[in-house]
Amino acid sequence: MTLPEDFTAEARSLFPEAECRAFLHAIETQDPHTSVRLNAAKLRSAAAAGGEELALAAEAGAEPVPWCKGGYYLPGRFPFTFDPLFHAGAYYVQEASSMFLSRLLPGDGMPLRVLDLCAAPGGKSTLLRASLPEGSLLVSNEVVPQRAAVLCENLQKWGHPDCIVASARPEEWGAMGAAFDLVLADVPCSGEGMFRKDAGAVVQWSRQNVELCARRQRDIVAAVWPALRSGGLLAYGTCTYNTAEDEDNVRWICRTLGAEPVAVAVPEEWDICGSLPAGSPGGALPVYRFLPHRARGEGLFLSLLRKTAPDAAPAPARPPKKKARPARGAAPSAGRASWLDCLVRRGSPWALWEEEGGASALDGCFLPFLRELRGRGLKVLSAGVPLCVSRGRDVLPHPALALSVALRRGSFPEVGLAYEGALAYLRREALVLPESAPRGIVLLTYRSLPLGFAKNLGTRSNNLFPPEWRIRTTHLPGRPASLLG
Q1: Does residue 1 have a pLDDT over 80?
Q2: 413-474 has which fold?
């Protein structure tokens, strides 16, 4: 890899000479690390359904990520595409440095309303959802439609019911006023921390792009800032090393918008760097920077800020350009009622509503907030647990219902698939189920974890796996790919 001359010059201004050599050597010559994070709720679900105890296989050679429970380094790349448990949401492939985000959450156990502003593809959102206290609501947002679709898929596969996926601009969230206790702004950046994983980031890098990104990052934070309540927390993050996008912007947020940095205890043996001397002319900041020659992970910068400015009043809601059909509490039609029994009731009752083409359910305490989002015209892609979809005269269970941890096992007849059958299903191929399989809607599983639904017609079955989620390659691995033993 040949790094841009301006980037290496910038590195020499940030680090002492010996450390600069180690830093550049790590970027130029070392391969990126592969790491995953287990979905504890899914693994418990498999065990509760009478399946085997799923854990990382001994032969996987995994090592724990020290700052994240359930995070593991793998010794090399794994063929995740061919592991049905990956598609079932049993684990998420996530860069180890970004798993540090879980250390920034408050430790008092109080429920939080959280906005992940730039959430695609979903790694930090699934981490937040796994780490938040019970009773918390996570709103995951992505403004780019194609990326928002990927975000929605990954959140639905992760399976937690207390999530809303939306696609709105930062200023639309800011117009709501003080709506959130925590906002994660993992802002678009110049991508220096991804040089080892993305050759395109090296080609696109320039000093001008760094300056452009720094200005855009300030605009994004300023636009969403009113949505954070006074005393709430902003987690500001980039995957860059330069101080213009990192320390300089943190100081700008504190000075201009009204915030104070919050320190987080970090063991020295983790070798996570703090504020760089070049970025600390006014004194060191409590920030957290992952450098490739120190920590085992890609480049990342995180800062935790507490809002000291007073709450902003919400802006008047403007009528949406396109009139949306509002969510409404309702007793679903008889054709849909059978799926509602699939939900595990928790502390508060489920709010059920019908919309054109389907029905969903959400914890009742979150329904007023969802109504406010829709009333303001914000584009909501998914909320809670999608229950069913209409296909002509048929009402079919939604694919996300199969993958939700809120599914009450036993509500649908279950058919376990062997490895080859699971891959065929995930490719959306036609399946012939065993003669003993009942006719109608069945839940297909692999190693006791649900993959999705099929409609068994006897001589054949209709594969109901979403076309946009399917495995597109026809290659078959020489042996079953299984990360979990």
Answers
A1: no
A2: Nuclear Transport Factor 2; Chain: A, (3.10.450)
